[in-house]
């Protein structure tokens, strides 16, 4: 039996695993979800069931490991013990499933393959574990930041530090956007084998064994140091620098993340632009912000991506790149702890859903109509975003970096410039050559927002030369034509044309800017919470438009769109031609 990446195994219809057989006996494939129970009896690559006696007793299981160079054997010794202690064929299969899942969670191996062979003696089994270590590598490319910005990134990955299970990742990046130039640096140390997490894993394994589950990998810890410098002169007159440290605990599926961060911030009002002949004077709201502050916060991040699951596209030649079916949900909650200069509770959620549309057609046969529904190029997508920021005291000033803005690759509101929606205050640009003072807006963000977008899309399919030739050669048989129909649209060039409509609003419900405190303090005190929420809803913006997009990866695409604002506020800055990267699900919603 051979277990690894992909359907590996011996010839179909081979003999069952018999301890009495010769050494180096037949190999069989094993199907089932990683880290979980097998789905039915084991099968070979062609689908023939293997008549394994899962209750057959095993007296001895020998395990040999090949392929270790830099990684010490002691690093994975604890993972091998469940395999060595297996006493039945069924226990051995479950132990191998858990072994592969745990080794994959360490992120220090490129490939793991296990070969199970009959031993020389009766009721003996030999397991050969073939490993390929990850190599140290450096890369240069593009990435998405926590706010959805496109970054030019240089990264170095150092797996298995000192021969152990820890890995070190170092990244440096700069934003490619003209509206918010920034530089980022981060160093992450992945620690999947902390004693506290191992105790938690043992408790989970006991519960899993009682319910006959496969052994799941344990949660992992991450220690991070980071720094960021951001130029905000495109939307407010400030320069921001962050540096800090964070400790994270992630679940084995990366669905749940708990983090504790300590951040030191310095924010200075911008007094001059890039041109020497001009000088910019920050607005009173920006100038009143503290120049230096500290924030200690605890965060919880939830990520659930159910877009185009592999089981839904199992018959396709490649995974679905543009979202067609399913949903993705990202939510984050943050609490600023005592000891810092700011205190608040912040929560936000982003949801994305896609539904393929089927229109009835006048076809002659029911089979052709059912196939046309499966291959319908029409897709309806929906995006929703909500957020609230509650300060400890209404009069307390929340730093600009902690507020909400409509920006990033997952923003639900289109036709408006990034960061250029919401409360403002007046700043000034002084042109020394002409002795002119020009008023400009400083966008201050808000403590509450909502946004939604609906898209009706149509997928075009231009298959590559290889896929078109294969489909033409297989058109002679009905089975070949059905398989080519299933693969249609997954290879080659397949852009998507879409119509969209978006609506959203951003403002202050629980806090106010310095200008509002000076001019509307009495009115704000008389207003209740419901009236401020009503004002936020009444100040909505909406837009419509059309565009075209091409996939770059799963859930990431490059798009060009033309949008027209239908309703906007007086201080909003619009942008009718849009070109950039979009994502289905927002990255970590509240990452530092």
UniProtKB/TrEMBL annotation:
Provide ranges: composition bias, Low complexity. 465-484
Origin species: Eimeria acervulina (Coccidian parasite)
Q: Which residues form a coiled coil?
A: none
Report the protein name in the record: Uncharacterized protein
- Give the GO molecular function terms: sequence-specific DNA binding
Regions of biased composition (Pro residues) lie at 9-19, 34-44
Q: What GO biological process terms does the UniProt entry carry, in alphabetical order?
A: regulation of gene expression
**Region (Disordered), start-end ranges:** 1-52, 465-487
One cellular component GO annotation, for this chain's record? nucleus
- Give the PANTHER family listed for this entry: BASIC-LEUCINE ZIPPER TRANSCRIPTION FACTOR A, CREB/ATF BZIP TRANSCRIPTION FACTOR
């Amino acid at each position: 039996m051979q277990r690894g990446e992909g359907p590996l195994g011996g010839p179909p219809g081979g003999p069952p695993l018999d301890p009495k057989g010769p050494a180096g006996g037949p190999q069989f494939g094993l199907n089932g979800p990683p880290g979980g129970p097998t789905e039915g009896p084991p099968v070979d690559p062609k689908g023939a069931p293997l008549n394994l006696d899962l209750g057959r007793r095993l007296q001895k299981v020998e395990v040999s490991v090949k392929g270790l160079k830099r990684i010490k054997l002691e690093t994975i010794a604890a993972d091998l013990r469940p395999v060595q202690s297996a006493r039945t064929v069924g226990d051995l299969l479950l132990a191998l499933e858990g072994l592969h899942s745990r080794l994959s969670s360490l992120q220090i191996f490129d490939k793991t393959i296990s070969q199970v062979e009959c031993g020389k003696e009766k009721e003996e089994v030999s397991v050969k574990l073939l490993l390929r270590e990850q190599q140290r590598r450096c890369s240069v490319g593009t990435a998405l930041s926590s706010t959805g910005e496109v970054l030019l990134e240089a990264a170095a990955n150092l797996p298995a530090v000192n021969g152990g299970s820890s890995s070190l990742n170092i990244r440096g990046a700069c934003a490619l956007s003209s509206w918010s130039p920034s530089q980022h640096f981060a160093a992450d140390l992945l620690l999947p084998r902390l004693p506290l997490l191992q105790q938690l894993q043992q408790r989970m394994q006991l519960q899993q064994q009682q319910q006959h589950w496969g052994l799941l990998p344990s949660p992992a810890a991450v220690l991070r140091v980071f720094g960021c410098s951001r130029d905000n002169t495109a939307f407010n007159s400030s320069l921001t620098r962050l540096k800090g440290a964070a400790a994270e605990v992630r679940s084995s599926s990366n669905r749940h993340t708990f983090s504790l961060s300590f951040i030191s911030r310095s924010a200075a009002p911008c007094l001059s632009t890039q041109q020497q002949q001009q000088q910019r004077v920050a607005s009173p709201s920006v100038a009143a912000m503290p120049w230096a502050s500290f924030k200690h916060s605890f965060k919880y991040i939830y990520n659930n991506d159910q877009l185009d699951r592999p089981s839904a596209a199992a018959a396709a030649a490649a995974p679905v790149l543009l979202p067609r079916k399913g949903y993705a949900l990202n939510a984050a909650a943050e609490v600023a702890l005592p000891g810092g200069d700011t205190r608040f509770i912040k929560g936000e959620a982003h949801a994305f859903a896609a539904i393929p549309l089927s229109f009835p057609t006048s076809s002659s046969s029911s089979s052709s109509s059912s196939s046309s529904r499966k291959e319908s190029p029409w897709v309806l997508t929906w995006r929703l975003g909500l957020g609230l920021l509650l300060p400890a005291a209404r009069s307390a000033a929340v730093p600009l970096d902690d507020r909400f803005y409509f920006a990033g690759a997952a923003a639900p509101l289109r036709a408006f410039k990034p960061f250029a929606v919401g409360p403002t205050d007046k700043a000034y640009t002084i042109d020394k050559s002409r002795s002119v003072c020009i008023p400009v807006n400083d966008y201050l963000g808000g403590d509450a927002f909502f946004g939604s977008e609906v898209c009706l899309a149509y997928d075009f399919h231009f298959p590559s030369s290889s896929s078109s030739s294969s489909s033409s050669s297989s058109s002679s048989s009905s089975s070949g034509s059905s398989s080519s129909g299933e693969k249609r649209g997954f290879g080659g060039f397949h852009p998507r044309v879409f119509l969209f409509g978006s609506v959203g609003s951003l403002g202050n419900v629980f806090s106010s800017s310095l200008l509002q405190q000076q001019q509307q303090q009495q009115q704000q005190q008389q207003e209740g919470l419901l009236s401020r929420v009503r004002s936020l809803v009444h100040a909505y913006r909406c837009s419509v438009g059309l565009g075209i997009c091409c996939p770059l990866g799963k859930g990431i695409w490059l798009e060009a769109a033309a949008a027209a604002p239908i309703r906007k506020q007086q201080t909003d800055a619009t942008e009718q031609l849009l070109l950039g990267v979009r994502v289905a699900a927002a990255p970590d919603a509240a990452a530092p």
